[in-house]
Amino acid sequence: MAATQSNTVAPNATEYGGDEISALVLDPGYSVVRGGFAGEDVPKSVVPSYYGILASDAHRKHLYGENAIHNPLPNIEIGNPFLDNGLVGDWDTATNLWEYAITSRLTNTKPSDPMTNGLNEKTDEMKDEMEGIETQERPLEENPLLITESPLNTGKGREKPIEIAMENWGTPAFWLARSGVLSAFSAGKPSALVIDIGASSTTVTPVHDGMMLRKGVARSPLAGNYISDQLRLLFSTSQPPLPLTPHYLINSKTPVDAGSPAQASYRTFPPGTEPAFSFRALQEERILTEFKESVVAVWSPGRLGGHHAQGGTNLDLARTQQNARPFEMPDGYNQLFSVERYRAVESLFDVKMALSDAAHPAPPPAHTLPNLVQQSLSGVDVDIRPHLLANIVVVGGSSLIYGLNERLKQELEALYPGPRVRIFSPGSVVERKFSGWIGGSILASLGTFHQMWISKKEYDEHGPGIVEKRCK
């Protein structure tokens, strides 16, 4: 147990645990970056991982934050520093994005130069005082930092965050933690099989006694973005096709009956000033996200392509009025969606139901959720498999689709009829979406964790390679 801190004695500057410090936890993901102080329930800073790009002849300007990426500025493009596999592809942009997430809500931004902000007259005395200010003011000089990482992170991908934190941000201490392990901690389980269904990928991570079993980690691209692609194919192949018209292109709309063509006036841009295609794609994704949250559901019991107890097909049953849900597009078009709401997500369990075209081939059976769990368990010791099956933790924003946990339990019980299958999934939307960050907040706030931090002195002695030795 950490020693009690005296009210009259200043805390030791080398101590980074318990209540003596304000450790920060940063959880970068493909969709959003979450940041906040250790010991708190939710992250204070939630920033989109997407960023705006304004290119001119002289330079390229990057825009960060929710408001910046949804403003249809002339020729604005949208980028993302992450690759489709969930690993960082552009470290320079990722560094700036993460720093924005930290300084915009958690710490102070760097002060502007008084000599160039237009508020002061330039003098020689001021010039002398401002020398070296860039090296003095760094965003994390007083805050240890814990960053989460993907279970399948590479060696370079593990070393780069500590370089950024120590050299760019000046943090006094650092730790790198696996997101799967932290999600298990947030559920109160030292051993668990963590299924994280995010935006770009789904990962299954076996955790035993607080340690990730790397041989059992399995990954699939069937996640939130894949479901969005299925919805695009579904809308484009329906009769008549359903166009996705983002909010920024709508000037006004008139209410219409279900199934009737939209009656809206559309916004136009002067030639050469239209936002880029990547901007429109992001705005379309917002519509699809709303559709997934309010309409899409997983079919159960049984498979959508199978038969029910009365002998008919589940597809016909799904088409009935009682299974339909309404949805209105930004331009006013609306209709009831019945079988479509199940079809978009069915291929997470049954690839025969996947929609495909030349650009989006059907996924292999190995990528489905039940097969992913099977791959993961085959990579761990046979003795701990029953314990992991009894402690399955489902997290991630895309796991919130209605009915997913119930269907997953049915599929796994069919695969493993002997052991008991139990699925734990937080009921709170916040806990489900931010499970990795919450686990990091719990870990970094423990008084017994202060001896685990990698200090600046250790980094100077051993270099970034110390992460591989210490952060297992």
DSSP helix fraction: 25-40%
State the end-to-end CA separation: 24 Å
| Largest sheet data | 6 strands, mixed
Radius of gyration: 25 Å
Number of strands: 19
Strand order of the largest sheet: 3-2-1-7-8-19
Global structural class: alpha+beta
Strand content: 15-25%
Q: Could you tell me the mean pLDDT?
A: 89
Low-confidence stretches: 1-11, 13-19
Number of helices, counting only DSSP H or I runs of 4 residues or more: 17
Which outline best applies? flat
Structure description:
32% of the residues lie in helices and 17% in strands. It has 17 helices and 19 strands. The model is unreliable at 1-11 and 13-19 (pLDDT under 50).
Quick structural gist:
This protein has 472 residues and is of the alpha+beta class.
Give the topology, please.
Elements: E1 24-28, E2 32-37, E3 45-48, E4 51-55, E5 60-63, H1 66-69, E6 77-79, H2 91-105, H3 124-130, H4 133-136, E7 145-149, H5 155-168, E8 173-178, H6 179-186, E9 192-197, E10 202-208, E11 211-212, E12 218-220, H7 224-237, E13 250-254, E14 263-266, H8 277-294, H9 314-318, E15 325-328, E16 334-337, H10 339-346, H11 369-378, H12 385-389, E17 392-395, H13 404-415, E18 423-424, H14 429-433, H15 435-444, E19 454-455, H16 456-462, H17 466-470
Helix pairs in contact: 6-15, 7-8, 7-10, 11-13
What structural keywords apply?
six-stranded mixed beta sheet, alpha+beta, flat
